[in-house]
Every structure is written in C-alpha cells, then in structure tokens.
Amino acid sequence: MSGLLLQTIVSGLTLGSIYAIVALGFVVIYQATRVLNFAHGEVLMLGAMIGLVLHTQVGFPYWPTFFVVLIAVALVGLLVERTAYAPLASSPLSTVIMATAAVGQIIRSGVRIVQAEQLSFFPPMFSLEPIVIGPVVITRLNLGIAAIAVGLVAIFGLLFYATTLGTAMRGTSQNPTAAWLVGIDVHRILSLIWALSAALAAAAGLLIAPLVLVRPDMGVIAIKAFVGAVLGGFNSLPGAVVGSLLLGVIENLVGVFLTNAFKDVVVFGILIAVLLIRPSGVLGRPEARRV
User: Using an 8 Å Cβ cutoff, are 14 and 145 in contact?
Assistant: First the structure.
C-alpha cells in the first residue's frame, strides 16, 4: 500500500506541475489587472491544437514546434489584451471578465469550425519506457513533462523576481499608477503580461496533450488550475504553484483510493471550502478593502 501511495503522489505531482504553469498565467494577469481571464483555458487548447497541426501534419520536430507555438500563442495573448482588456480597462471588472469569456468562446468555436469535434492523439515527445525508482514506476514521458514544467516555473520565477523587467512587472501589478509615475511604460508591461500568460497556457497545452486526447473542449483543464491557484493564494505566485501541486496530488489520491467519479466533487468542494474558510488561500495574504 505504501508503494501505491508513493506512486500516486508522484503521478499527482506530475499533473500538478502542469496545473502550476496554467495557474501562474491566471495569477499574473489577476495581479496586474484584477481580471479573471476566462479565455485562458481556450488559449491552452489553442496551443495544443497548433502544436498538433505543426507536429503531425506539417512535420515539424517537437522542439521547434514547442517554441513556434509559444511565440504564436503569445501573439494571441496580445490580441486578447488589445480586444478584450485595453478598450474596456475603465469599465467595471464584470464587463472585462465577460469580454474575456466571449473571446474564449470565439476561440473554441473557431477551432470547432476547422476541427469539428474530432479527437486527436498527440505523439509523446519522450519514450514511454518505464523507469523504476524503488517502489515507484514512472515513464520517461511523465518524468520529462514534470522536468519541463518545473523548468518553466523556475524560469518564470527568475524573470519575475530577479530581473529589471520583472521589477517593472511587479510594480505594475501592485500599483499601475505609481509605476507610471516612476517612468514604467504600463501599457507595454500589461501587453507583455498578457503575452507571457498566454505562452504559459500554450506550454501547458503542449505538455498535457500527450496525456489526454486533443479536442476543442480540453480547455476545461484550466478550471482545475484555477482551483489550485485559489487553494494556494491568488495573490501569490509561489502560492499558486504550491496549491496546484497539492491539488494534483489530492485529485490523484481520490481517483486511486476512492473513485474517479469523486474527483471533480472533491476538487470543487475544496474550492468552496477555501473560499469559506480562508479566501486568501494557503500562502496568500488577506487583501485590505477600502471602505
């Protein structure tokens, strides 16, 4: 039983590492704009779809495909910012959030026009040969996906916390007006934040594509990442990562030791519990409200 438990936890961490990439995209936009980007899941799906076409139909090798998709979907993120956020920035938040939801539906419907409801298999980028580490058996594919996900999270963390650009991004996130007063080009930084968020979603789509069938509604995966971000703390990038990893483990434990039918029940039960008991999340900070 201990071997099965350890195996389940390791698999959950692999899944959680993908959730973490998506969660970072949610959180960085929220911190900068207080907007929940409901097109994020469809951007994830779009990354997987573009990668599928380039890799299986055009014949691009996997790694060139990976980087081309990141650039292409980052441009889509810029387009979303220009169409769904920038023109409505002074509008009520609910209006901007509905606009992002509308953009998400446009992306999903556009893919359905081309792809219909076709389910497609994305070839694995690593071997499916198992690696035995004590009581744990993990494939090279799962190990590679986890390693890439951890690397992307680390790179994003370094960019955000250890560079001049990251300082500008943090300043814009915390107080756009003050950032503008000290000479930061807030509009350019906001555009960059939306582009980076989209690129993170695209990377997650490419990483999870070999584990699931690529389909127009696969963007619902982002809902789990959203729950992970809430669990860890929506105003904390490290919290979003920790919460996503924790959620991946919990989801796997429920699926293995109870039943797959309860996985969504537990995930959304966690969301409700966190919102009721500690809305700021495990590592988040309570936000002061102006009265």
Answer: yes
By the 10 Å C-beta count (0-12 exposed, 13-18 middle, 19+ buried), 286 is classed as: exposed
Other CB atoms within 10 Å distance of the CB of residue 246: 19
Tell me the pLDDT tens digit for each residue of 31-85: 888 889 999 999 999 999 999 999 999 999 999 999 999 999 999 999 999 888 9
- Residues 6 or more apart in contact with residue 94 via CB below 8 angstroms: none
**24-45 tens-digit pLDDT:** 999 999 988 888 999 999 999 9
Paired tokens of 80: 């979303």
Pairwise CA distance, residues 157 & 151, whole Å: 10
Q: What is 182-247 written as a DSSP string?
A: TT--HHHHHHHHHHHHHHHHHHHHHHHGGGS-B-TTGGGHHHHHHHHHHHH-TT-HHHHHHHHHHH
Please check whether residue 8 is in contact with residue 256, taking contact to mean a CB–CB distance below 8 angstroms. yes
Instruction: Name residues whose C-beta falls within 8 Å of residue 221's C-beta, 6 or more positions apart in sequence.
Output: 22, 41, 44, 204, 208, 212
- Say how far apart CA 5 and CA 197 lie, in whole Å: 34
pLDDT tens for 219-265 read 989 999 999 999 998 888 899 999 999 999 999 999 888 888 888 89
CA distance 119 to 227: 26
What is the C-alpha separation between 270 and 276, in angstroms, rounded? 10
Query: pTM for the full model?
Result: 0.91
